[in-house]
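Example record

One chain of 100 residues, shown exactly as stored in the release files.
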Amino acid sequence: MPITVVAQVRVQPGQEEAFQKAAEELVEFVTDHEPETLVYVLHRSTSMPGKFLFYEVYADETALARHGASEAIQKFFGKVRALLSSAPEIETYHEVVGKR
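Predicted structure tokens for this chain:
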């Protein structure tokens, strides 16, 4: 069963571009190397420049666990941890109904 992750990230003022660059590299890596990651999209708030949102859909819980334990995600958080103003807010969801 697919699982969706919504992760909100808040970045310290003045660090938005550095965070976005690192996140773009991560998205590119995931797109190219994680076939069980069905959707992996970074969004930036229109009203709060330092607020970002990842929208992620994985084929199943195993794919999500593999992503979370990957070297790429560990390197990403190593790069951006000092740029964040607070811990990421992460929620997971199971799909109920919708149009694809």
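Notes: The chain has a mean pLDDT of 96.
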